[in-house]
Amino acid sequence: MSEQKQVKPAQAAGKAGRPQQQKNSAAPSSKAAAQGRRPQAGGKSGNKSRSAGSAGGQASSGSNRAAGQAGAHKSGSPRAPRTPRELALDILVSVAGAGAYSNLKLNQALQDAQLSRADAGLATELVYGTIQYQRTLDYWLGRFVAKGFNKLQPWVHQLLRMSAYQLLYLDRIPVHAAVNEAVAIAKKRGHQGISGMVNGVLRSMDRSRAELEPSAIKAGSPAEKLAILHSYPDWLVKRWVLAYGEQTAEAICAAGNDSPHASVRVNPARATRAEAIDQLAELGLDADVSPLASAGITIRRGGNLADTAGFREGLWTMQDESSMLVAEVVAPAAGMQVLDCCAAPGGKTTHLAELMGNKGKVWANDLHPHKRQLIIDQSSRLGLTNVEAITSDAAQLSERFASGSMDAVLLDAPCSGFGVIRRKPEIKWTKTAADVAAIADIQRELLEAVSGLVKPGGVLVYSTCTIERSENEEQVEHFLQAHPEFELDRNWPESILHALQEAGAIDEGFKGYAQLLPQHYGSDGFFIARLLRRA
Ligand SMILES: C[S@@+](CC[C@H](N)C(=O)[O-])C[C@H]1O[C@@H](n2cnc3c(N)ncnc32)[C@H](O)[C@@H]1O
User: Fold this and answer.
1) What CATH number is given to the structural domain containing 65?
2) Which of 3, 141, 401, 524 is in Cβ range 3.0-4.6 Å of 322 for a Cys bridge?
3) Are residues 332 and 361 in the same domain?
4) Region annotation Disordered: residue ranges (predicted)?
């Protein structure tokens, strides 16, 4: 049987594909393991999509070269890899070695390689799964790699991880296929000794799989055990245990390994949610109303949403459901002057503009000049003429706009991104505690700088896609201490309060800010605070 039949692409297989619960106890016991299936390559795009497609918001920064450059080809000259495993391996080497973004790299490589849909699905699965589970994979592989990983060439290490991922997490891939393909790649790129070692390690791992279970993990603390079991760095899990307690920290870890589902936001000027659902259903997509966002539609089984007439004609925008809450919390009225300080690629800008019925003005600012066009393109696709895209450091916006000139200011701040680990798993391995501290300093500076632009009686919304207290609650509390002219506002849309309560994200102690965790609705981890400038 061909591998394409073993690992079905998301569109065909729905929830099938990735760990249909473990033959093997080494795989994590999370919901992800039970139901996880990564989106088909090219399946979801736009805001922060972890899949490899390109569309609207996320549109390629384009500069990533094809995966053929990564890895060590015997010939020494780059060429397009032929199999999904070769392609995935090249991307893994490139992400680990050169710090490339997995989603951009994969997107570019898949475009270049022209794989079949099934093979593209397999390559996508291998890239995300291997990065996601690399610590757990290394923990078990360490038993069988006698010389340790440091002695291995990077591509051999990645090949072992990628193959171990298939053995331990992808039940639909026969062991012989995973091992034989790995050996073939090792022969092609290395020498007899390497392929023999790869064969030996993988076969030993397969024989010992019954021993690779959570109880066999030796860890010095509960946090370290969680970190090994769910594949995270110790320092991060320790922070989450401290901030949220052990149980919630484990749920965060498990949810971070889940595959995200797709979701779209309906443009009310072009369609009702029911009409959009009907159109998506006609395309064979499993679309349903979002339990979280009033304009949101979830798509559990989907194809390439960017390649639909509804997207091209501005009926919908790909956006995570948590992200959709932010503009709803801003709740701008038609005719207002609204400033979106960190706006690219324009997901929230366009939502604000839609909520304003295309009346008034949304100033959509971003630091990077090349991102301005993304905002313009999205606005134009959606028929929005009330957006003006500008380029500036948000810290300097007070040079452009008069103090107190805005009815509403949104600071969707750059952040550590720990709420979107499902989409960008390399975040786990690349961010450090020092990065969190540094980004918190920037957020503080930006919040300070843009708050003066809010008019008395106006609204300031601060949001991030992270779950770090120092970037979220502590940031807001610190700001309020220094700015008595602002106060938290609990006047949020009723539907959002209800959804947050249902999930346990807020309780009767709700003060005017909320932290949504990825396990609540299977959407991104997001923090939102609504502040009012006293009149
Ligand atoms: C979280 S993303 C914004 C996502 C966007 N709000 C959306 O919904 O599509 C943060 C953005 O902040 C921008 N950025 C980072 N530092 C900035 C600064 N000092 N001033 C303005 N923009 C900045 C980045 O280029 C990035 O596009």
Assistant:
1) 1.10.940.10
2) 524
3) yes
4) 1-83
Q: Select from 249, 283, 318 the last residue of a domain.
A: 318
> Ligand 1: which atom is nearest the Cα of residue 368?
25
Quote ipTM for the complex.
Answer: 1.00
pLDDT attached to residue 302: 66
| 338 and 310 housed in the same domain | no
Q: Which of 341, 366, 397, 461 to mutate to test the pocket of ligand 1 (most atoms within 8 A of CB)?
A: 366
More confident residue, 51 or 389: 389
Distance CA 117, CA 137 (A): 27
Q: What is the pLDDT of residues 426-468, one digit of tens each?
A: 999 999 999 999 999 999 999 999 999 999 999 999 999 999 9
Average pLDDT of 328-349? 98
Residue numbers of the domain that contains 37 = 3-216
Look at residues 398, 530, 407, 410 and name the one whose alpha carbon lies nearest to residue 452: 398
Both 165 and 271 in one domain: the answer is no
CA of 375 from ligand 1 middle (Å) equals 12
User: Binding site for S-adenosyl-L-methionine: residue ranges?
Assistant: 342-348, 366, 393, 412
- End-to-end Cα, the chain, rounded Å: 70
Residue 312 and residue 325 in one domain = no
Beta-strand relationship, 526-533 and 486-488: antiparallel
Using a 10 angstrom Cβ sphere, with 0-12 exposed, 13-18 middle and 19 or more buried, the burial of residue 511 is middle
What is the pLDDT at residue 25?
Answer: 35
Query: Phi and psi dihedrals of 365, rounded to 5?
Result: -105, 145
Expressed in angstroms and rounded, the spacing between residue 336 Cα and the centre of ligand 1 is 22
The count of other CB atoms within 10 Å of the CB of residue 246 is 15
Residue 340 CA to ligand 1 center (angstroms) comes to 9
Please tell me if the CB atom of residue 136 comes closer than 6 angstroms to any atom of ligand 1.
no
Count Cβ neighbours within 10 Å for each residue of 293-306 and write b for 16 or more, e otherwise: bbbbbbbbbbbbbb
Q: Which residues are annotated as a binding site?
A: 342-348, 366, 393, 412
The answer, yes or no, to whether any atom of ligand 1 lies below 6 A from the CB of 350, is no
